[in-house]
């Protein structure tokens, strides 16, 4: 285990937990020391914990399960001792996260894909390259709550690509108004049971409970400004319609945006191409070379062809064109890998940054 | 054949042509007397004309192919004599339509699913229940062009559901601005080859050539006002993003609309429910009972579950809710059967109306 | 309720239970008087019982839910009083069926889609048109067990099409050996959760637990001969490989069969076409016109195009051709609707027969 | 270009041609010097040649198109001068292959994925690790035909996995009889147009023209024995049913096999695991580490999870179990990547072997 930082993965058996394990296999900075999940899995080896009654091992992350992790014994999340852990990666469902994450945060930093604490005033929702200055809220949070550690949640997987592509537009031209329709992948619903074949084959499901509200709120918080002991949300309004389509991985989003001032197509593409240099260019182990890929082919981005760009850490945009229904209006589509940059690997990139800055380790 | 009106179907072998044949089987008013297609099919029985080199009969409409039609010999579209035909149903591609439809219109009414003449000043794009008053342009068209017949094209299949659901809103509250993202079915691309499996399985294709411009332009023309020798387009702006999803039939559209005045949820639903009474309520053989079905279940409409409502002639809406990014803003989703109301059966309903009014027959 | 026979549907909330309700809506002989399911559903209206936590009503049968049934209050299956019921339709899972079906059978006939009692010596597995003479075992069963009622289970949904297509071959030419590979629809796995999208999109799952053994055993029992107090299984051997494919409804099966004597293609097709006349030809409310449809087009049968033949009650065969690896060998494919003839509607057809013969009512 | 062997790829724009280009990018032994296709593509850069009328670039191989190849100008296949080429990789359709491959073979070795010459007496169908001794026929072929080069075709993509998995069984235990049902991926039908979405979504197509005959004949030739100036086919009989399923890549095959003598499960698995050592173990640039992967998990192999094992060059088997309908009968399933080991990359592996043996270069 040498000089790596020992970490725990909680909620390890779900889809997001599996993505954490896949992303942490052979990681140069962190080493998985503990796995935890619900009482149903506790006491079993990880491999047995993800085996269904039918005997099928349910492993959904790309690549095969690391053999060392496969044999780690899963602990019960509610009884997990995280002292000694450099960080806790939480892939818990919202309800257990609300109860357990503060218990962990009392002792160690918690990087979470759960929504439970996203909307608290002293909790930043960090996206590398977008708003890492919000990390300063961590100190406020520690003082407010008397914790040794802290909680930094990831955004919802649908927020991630939207916030990343809006960030450079907001910075340079100001964003006034956003309309977004998502076509989300099945993996976003997890695996217990997630979206069943009978519902999604040859179909579109026009509703994902609570999703639209999350995206609308989180995008404004992420692009907001640090304001003393909290974050002042960005002043623009976001309006979403979130749907589910028969796609395995990769959320597609159709965006209509009103900017605060005129911009040319080349200025917008330039802003995207240059965005995130501070964390991209492979600066951290999980960094992509470019946060945003800009496609000129009108038939792109496509989720099957673009979700794995830079191992799922790049957001791909295309079809940028003027929108005539808005002043300074533009339209584009984006594809973002919902279980990589949009979940575990995105959280890991945050942790890599926080480790470098001394918040973790 | 008795007292039915004899009609020709041109472009009969394609997907839209097949839908015409399916809709015209056992029709109480019209009887298919002639079938025409390209030279490749000419001289063959219809059944042989839709048989591929592999031997597979390619019939995509619901129900089985009518045996009488199966044995009709297909004529070459460019040599078709339409004198004696009460109407010509044209499912030609745009380019041959541009050349051939005027030749037919010189002798007989042409009801077309092709886009070739949709944007000409003296050509109405009719949707039953929405703008049948535009049929008065037919006289202008006849005089302008010296035709015995005329051309009335159907809207693009993606326009249909949008125009139908906007019409009652425009009538009662005024529409100011529309943003729409479509998730379109594979059948919209036809069968030669249409969308191939390798492109669409586990994927979304973010672009359909020329589709967005058509929807933006047609919606305003359809909801425009008859103005002497032409149509004054509705003054609102429509902005679209059109995508293709792994769905067989039924276009789903996510709509954001700004109204000209305040409305309540109940007023909007009421407007939808009452809309189109003049042609609905089974007034014509192809009429649905209600042009618009309003769903209260937030998980509806779904294309697989709702496309066949009223045999594909109803547009189903759901998820009506306020949009906070627009003044008097509302959001909803709709599902419309793209090859039934959105194509051949929609054209047939127009023809049924025109027959009643004496334009046909 | 008039003179209809009152029946209970147990396991009513699952996929097979829903198919029972769909099949029993407006049935001329039976009337649903009671609905039962697990304690989780007990006390709720049926409509509420099939509503998920997310709010989505999970109704998978074709057509919409009958409004009278929607408002029936679901009783707890373990406490259900079936006295007064003319029959009980059981769509229970195997384990609760083992416990509860005998309790019901003490008072009333139980027609079941569960496998629990299929392999007991005094229990016939009835398929209308195939082995209704096995119904005579019902008397033996009643005597053995001291029941007022009895249990007659349906075969597994994969057995149904195989047994129906082998029956006339066995009768006329003798079946010696059968190899079958199935490509089964997702609906066969039910809805709790059934097959999830992440597992089945762009995939084939090569294993369905216990399925092959069931098909191998049941086919021989169904085509066996009544022998005093039991059934002597047919002497041929059946070897199966059962897989799951991304299809919503309709099992496809590729069959290789060795016959006991030479046959011509026309003799085999003739045997299929004439088969089942005693129950087909719409003799019962749920009868198809023909039990078996024979296709000459080599591209048929296809599950999407053929599953709904005769409202899911016909088995469609095609691609009959000689097999060179077997003496008197033949190959063919079949499609059978797994949740209609292969489950609830098939069970209902059995009940219609048993009612006519005085076993029910 | 240095010391690499210059090669031409003919039929370069189709799916198999694209797979050749993907496999040859950065290849250590071969360098693509010429590209050829039909007259429709001739004179265009490769990138333009695979751009459709709609503007969409149709590139289906994994990875992106090599930029040097993208700008190569495509020549007309019928006018291609192959002198100076160390080898010609042909991905032509069967008909042009019959005409053009002999013209190329007069001057250079032709490694082909086309079926045109597979069944000629002096033409071997080579699979590395299975029957490379058949390469000796090349000399016979050259003498017979007076060619400087020769033709060695790959087997049909469905034959490949079957022949590879039967080879070690035939060698050790003797194969007597084979029944195989395939569930084939859409990519097997190519891209012009291949399988269209309207045909394959939510469906199985039970017939692939000429496929079964090819597999039945090729398997016996490949596992046959070199016999003077020809190959004596293996004496067993193969009976197939070939179907198409909604899977992008990777053919799944359910096999029932009768062996000539008793074998244990461990003996069979051992034979598979050890098979092909002479070409596997990464001996050639395109070699997998193991030709055959044996899975113990009954839910494997699955095409989506196993097609890319060893970059598509391994055949994965699973579910080995006894078959009770055959003497010494066994059943198993296999997954093989149809456009990699089953097509271009398999052909490339043959070429790597032939280059080492001095037949090429």
Helix content of chain A: 25-40%
Shape of chain A: globular
Q: Evaluate the radius of gyration of chain A.
A: 20 Å
Give the CATH topology of the largest domain in chain A: Dihydrodipicolinate Reductase, domain 2
Strand-pairing-aware structural class of chain A: alpha/beta
The CATH H-level homologous superfamily of the largest domain in chain A: Dihydrodipicolinate Reductase, domain 2
Beta-strand level of the residues of chain A, as a percent range? 15-25%
| Quaternary assembly | homotetramer
Could you characterize the architecture of this molecule?
Four copies of one chain form a homotetramer. Chain A has 361 residues and is an alpha/beta fold. Chain A has two domains: 5-154 and 344-356, 3-Layer(aba) Sandwich (Rossmann fold), CATH 3.40.50; 157-336, 2-Layer Sandwich (Dihydrodipicolinate Reductase, domain 2). Chain A contains eleven helices and 14 strands. In chain A, strands 3-2-1-4-5-6 form a six-stranded parallel beta sheet, with helices on both faces. In chain A, strands 10-7-11-14-13-12 form a six-stranded mixed beta sheet, with helices on one face. A two-stranded antiparallel ribbon of chain A has the order 8-9. In chain A, a hairpin with a 5-residue loop joins strand 13 and strand 14 (329-336). In chain A, helix 6 runs parallel beside helix 8 (211-222). The radius of gyration of chain A is 20 Å and the shape is globular. The first copy, chain A, starts with a strand and ends in a 5-residue tail after the last helix. The mean pLDDT of chain A is 95. Chains in contact: A-B, A-C, A-D, B-C, B-D, C-D. Chains A and B meet through strand 7, strand 10, strand 11, helix 10 and strand 13 of A and strand 7, strand 10, strand 11, helix 10 and strand 13 of B.
């Amino acid at each position: 285990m040498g000089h790596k930082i020992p970490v725990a993965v909680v909620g390890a058996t779900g889809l997001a937990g599996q993505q954490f394990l896949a992303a942490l296999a052979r990681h140069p900075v962190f080493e998985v020391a503990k796995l935890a999940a619900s009482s149903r899995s506790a006491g079993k080896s990880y491999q047995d914990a993800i085996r269904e009654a039918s005997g099928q091992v349910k492993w959904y992350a790309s690549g095969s399960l690391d053999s060392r992790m496969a044999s780690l014994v899963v602990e019960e999340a509610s009884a997990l001792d995280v002292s000694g852990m450099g960080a806790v990666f939480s892939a818990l469902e919202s309800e257990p996260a609300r109860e357990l994450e503060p218990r962990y945060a009392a002792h160690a930093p918690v990087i979470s894909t759960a929504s439970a604490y996203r909307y608290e005033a002293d909790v930043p929702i960090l996206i590398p390259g977008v708003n890492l200055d919000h990390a300063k809220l961590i100190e406020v949070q520690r003082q407010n709550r008397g914790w040794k550690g802290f909680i930094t949640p990831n955004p919802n997987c649908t927020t991630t690509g939207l916030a990343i592509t809006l960030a450079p537009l907001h910075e340079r031209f100001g964003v006034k108004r956003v309309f977004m329709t998502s076509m989300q992948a099945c993996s976003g619903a997890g695996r217990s049971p997630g979206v069943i074949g009978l519902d999604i084959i040859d179909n579109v499901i026009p509703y994902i409970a609570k999703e639209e509200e999350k995206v609308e709120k989180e995008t404004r918080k992420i692009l907001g400004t640090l304001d003393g002991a909290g974050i002042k949300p960005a002043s623009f309004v976001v309006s979403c319609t979130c749907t589910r389509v028969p796609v395995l991985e990769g959320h597609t989003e159709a965006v209509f945006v009103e900017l605060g001032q005129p911009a040319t197509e080349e200025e917008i593409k330039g802003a995207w191409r240059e965005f995130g240099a501070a964390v991209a260019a492979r600066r951290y182990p999980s960094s992509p070379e470019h946060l945003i890929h800009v496609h000129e082919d009108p038939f792109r981005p496509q989720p099957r062809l673009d979700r794995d760009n830079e191992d799922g850490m790049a957001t791909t945009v295309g079809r940028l064109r003027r929108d005539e229904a808005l002043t300074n209006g533009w339209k584009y589509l984006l594809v973002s890998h919902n279980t990589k940059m949009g979940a575990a690997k995105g959280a890991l990139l945050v942790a890599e940054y926080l480790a470098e800055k001394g918040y973790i380790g």
